[in-house]
Amino acid sequence: RAADVSSPNRTKEIIRKHGFTLKKSLGQNFLTDANILRNIAGAAELDASKGALEIGPGIGALTQQLAKEAGIVVAIEIDQRLLPILEETLEPYPHASVVHGDVLKLDLHALWQERFSGCSKVSVVANLPYYVTTPIIMKLLEEKLPLEYIVVMIQREVAERMAAKPGGKEYGSLSIAVQYYCEPEMVAIVPPTVFIPQPNVDSAVIRLKRREEAPAHVEDETLFFEIVHACFAQRRKTLSNNLLAGVFAKAEKPAMETILAECGIDPTRRGETLSIAEYARLANAVLAYRR
Ligand code: SAM
C-alpha cells in the first residue's frame, strides 16, 4: 500500500517527482498535517454506507483520509496536471475516483445520480480553493443537493462571516444565506504553517449541517434574498434608505412604512440587526403588497 501523502516531506517528494509547480491562481495550498486531515474527515461522520464529495483534491491528502472512512469518494479537480498524481496516490482506494472539471460548471445533480445513488448520505468535505469559496458554497446550497454536511477548510474570516449572529460587523448576506439552509459550527482554527505553500491568512474548518426545514417560513426565496442583499447594500444606511434604494420606488415610501410597521420593524434600524425571521416576515409582507 502506498504511503499517505499527508506529511510535508511526502508532499514535497511527490511534487518534485512529478515536476509539479503549484498554481496560486487555482488556490493550490496543500495540507500537510495528518491530525487536521483526520479532524476534517472526522467532522463529516462518515462510514461505509456514506459518500463523500471532495472539491479540489490536489495531490490527494484529504482524499486518502476520506477513502479510509467513506464507502464512495468522488473528487472534482480542475487541474489536469494533477490527474496522474492522483492516479498514483489513490491507487490503493478503488472506491475513490476523480472527475476532471470545474465544480462551478459541472452538473452536480447528474453526478449524484451517477455516483452516489447507493449511498445512505453524502457530505461535501474539502479544503477549498479560497478564490472561489463563496460561489462554491452558494452553488451547493442553492442547488439544494441532498447533503448531510458541508465540512470545509476556508479563510477564517469567511468562516466567521458564515457563522455570525445578527448585530455584529461580520453578519451579512452570506451569514443569512448559509444559515437559511444550514446550521454552522466552527470546528477548528488553522494556522498557515500546515500548508505548502503557506497562505497569507488564517484558515478555519467549518461544518454546515443541512437543515431539514428552513428556520423561517419564506414564500418567495428569490424575493427574500433580493431584499436581504438590498438591506446590506450600504451598511451605514438605515433599513428604510436601503429599501428605498433597492426594493421600493420613492413614491412607495408610505406603503413601505406601513409594511415595516406591520412587521414590527423600526425603519431606522440597520440591515445588520435583523434576524432571518425578521427578513422572512418582511419578504412575505412585500410579496403580499405586490400581489
Ligand atoms: N485537497 C488538497 C489538500 O487539502 O491538500 C488541495 C486543496 S487546494 C486548497 C484546492 C484545490 O482545488 C487545488 O487542487 C485546485 O487545483 C483545485 N481547484 C481550484 N479551483 C477549482 C474548481 N473551480 N473546481 C475544482 N477544483 C478546483
Verbal overview:
This protein has 291 residues and is α/β, with parallel strands linked by helices. Helix content is 40%, strand content 17%. It contains twelve helices and nine strands. The strands form two sheets. The protein has a seven-stranded mixed beta sheet. Strands 1-8 form a two-stranded antiparallel sheet. Strand 3, helix 4 and strand 4 form a beta-alpha-beta unit. The longest helix is centred in the last third of the chain and has 15 residues. The protein is elongated. It starts with 7 loop residues before the first helix and ends with a helix. The site of S-adenosylmethionine has 22 residues, from strand 1, helix 3 and strand 3. S-adenosylmethionine (SAM) binds next to strand 1, helix 3 and strand 3.
Query: How far is it from the N-terminal to the C-terminal residue, by CA?
Result: 65 Å
Topology as H/E string?
Answer: HEHEHEHEHEHEHHEEEHHHH
Q: Helix coverage percent of residues? A: 25-40%
Global morphology: elongated
Low-confidence stretches: none
**Could you report the average pLDDT, rounded to the nearest whole number?**
97
* Strand order, sheet with most strands: 4-3-2-5-6-9-7
**Distinct helical segment count:** 12
Query: Which distinct ligands sit in these coordinates?
Result: S-adenosylmethionine
The main pleated sheet reads as:
7 strands, mixed
Output the radius of gyration.
Answer: 22 Å
Strand content: 15-25%
Keywords:
transferase, Ribosomal RNA small subunit methyltransferase A, rRNA processing, EC 2.1.1.182, two-stranded antiparallel sheet, 7-stranded mixed beta sheet, 291 residues, binds S-adenosylmethionine, alpha/beta, elongated, 9 strands, rRNA_adenine_dimethylase
